Amino acid sequence: MSQPTFSQKLQAGSTFPDISVTDLHGKAHTLGQTGEGQDWQLIVVYRGKHCPICTKYLNKLAKHKNKLMDAGVDVIAVSADSKDQLESHLDDLSVDFTLGYGLSEDNMKALGLYISAPRSEQETDHSFAEPAIFVVDQENKIRIVDISNAPFSRPDVDILVDGLQWLRKPDNDYPIRGTHS
Predict the structure, then answer these.
(1) Is CATH 3.40.30.10 what the domain over 38-165 is classified as, yes or no?
(2) Against a cut of 0.90, is the pTM above it?
(3) Which residues form the Thioredoxin domain (predicted)?
(4) Above 60 in pLDDT, residue 131?
């Protein structure tokens, strides 16, 4: 029996690491740095084109993009897929937020993600990250972190979006949770 390996998980309230991905237009995006008009970013790490659950999740999230933008939350989804895999995945996606590709294994480890090997060449041709959600604020602090080791275990989109809308209301003055370990 092999020995378990351990990875360092990012902590709520910590500074988000400096990681960049590329979009289909060749533009580099530094995760945690938002688009115009938004000062928070929702970073969705997904498994890749081979995962139908990820496709469904991203398409559902896209339906909430305007609510997130109105709340000042930019959205980016990233995977370890290649440019060709992402281009092919677009046939099944109906999203209008940024999609980044090329998340490296070193990036995955820096994010504390669970990493899986493909079950076969038909699945994909590279190791990939299991799902994760990060919400990063204007100070590059992690407000929310959710790291999973399975495609069917991730935050419900409706609850996540409702929670972010509530969280962004200044009167709620909600602190970063989970900072005591």
Answers:
(1) yes
(2) yes
(3) 10-169
(4) yes
